[in-house]
């Protein structure tokens, strides 16, 4: 256990980050990034599970968290949250439970019926989820739980994703790092081999900054494009130019409570940012 934490401790205060997460676990097995609130939710619980997994640690009272995630899979739950719950269950070793609830996904997301945007609800990135974001999360969840995707479904999804192709990336009004990664991950996960995109490389900041931006040749860097661009370059078999500078950027984002914010400016910690910060550090450590 100590060795993995010791690796992280070379670069960030990982013990403080872990304490930040542990203090926000509630009796129902769920998590809430605002510790004083009992409003546990799928998003925070998913990222808590991801952090424990990333750090090589077991989730405390795992069975309670499995029960919490299973209870969250309801007809009124947004499709992104359902996908998070399914993937979280897979990480916790409950793929069989997750597969029992696959049917509810198809009531909201069914490519054979051209349902890419039914009851999207909340989003990770955009306030209201885009159909591309929902596609990314559903494909990722199905891969995690071992749910097969038929050839017809694969082709329907591929054609849908390609509607967001813009020049060297993917987006709605312009190519963005987040949507480019989500599109490329989806295509790779389905077994397709799209050409490499230069978008991620064009968003990398070295020099005085570190991190990545959402669109090329802009400032300032933010955590979410840094997370997605790092994974995008790895997906394409490319290396980062300045990993030490990116770690410097991540270090500046850790708040006094142990969690991480999204930018160099002042901001609150949350579980999403904290997981992404640790995931970027994990990727950078492979270069050092």
From TrEMBL:
It comes from the Archaea. Pfam families: Prenyltrans. Signal peptide: none annotated. InterPro entries: Prenyltrans, Terpenoid_cyclase/PrenylTrfase, UCP016175_prenyltrans-rel. Keywords: Repeat. Gene3D superfamilies: 1.50.10.20. Residues 15-77, 133-283 form the Prenyltransferase alpha-alpha toroid domain. GO terms for molecular function: catalytic activity. This is Prenyltransferase alpha-alpha toroid domain-containing protein. It comes from Thermococcus kodakarensis (strain ATCC BAA-918 / JCM 12380 / KOD1). The lineage of its organism: Archaea, Methanobacteriati, Methanobacteriota, Thermococci, Thermococcales.
């Amino acid at each position: 256990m100590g060795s993995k934490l010791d690796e992280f401790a070379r670069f960030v205060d990982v013990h403080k980050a872990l304490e930040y997460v542990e203090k926000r676990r509630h009796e129902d097995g769920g998590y809430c990034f605002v510790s004083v609130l009992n409003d546990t939710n799928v998003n925070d619980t998913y990222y808590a599970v991801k952090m424990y997994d990333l750090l090589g640690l077991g989730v405390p009272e795992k069975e309670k968290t499995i029960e919490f995630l299973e209870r969250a899979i309801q007809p009124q739950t947004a499709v992104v949250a359902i996908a998070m719950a399914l993937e979280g269950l897979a990480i916790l070793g409950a793929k069989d439970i997750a597969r029992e609830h696959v049917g509810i996904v198809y009531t909201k997301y069914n490519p054979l019926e051209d349902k890419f945007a039914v009851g999207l609800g909340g989003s990770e990135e955009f306030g209201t989820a885009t159909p591309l974001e929902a596609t990314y999360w559903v494909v990722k969840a199905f891969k995690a739980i071992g749910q097969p995707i038929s050839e017809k479904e694969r082709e329907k999804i591929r054609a849908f994703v390609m509607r967001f192709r813009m020049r060297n990336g993917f987006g709605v009004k312009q190519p963005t790092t987040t949507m480019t990664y989500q599109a490329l991950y989806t295509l790779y996960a389905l077994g397709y081999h799209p050409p490499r995109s230069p978008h991620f490389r064009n968003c990398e900041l070295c020099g005085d900054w570190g991190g990545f931006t959402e669109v090329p040749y802009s400032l300032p860097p933010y955590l979410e494009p840094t997370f997605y661009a790092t994974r995008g370059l790895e997906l394409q078999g490319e290396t980062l130019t300045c990993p030490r500078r990116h770690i410097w950027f991540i270090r500046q984002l850790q708040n006094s409570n142990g969690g991480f914010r999204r930018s160099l400016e002042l901001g609150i910690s949350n579980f999403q940012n904290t997981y992404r910060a640790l995931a970027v550090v994990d990727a950078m450590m492979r270069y050092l």
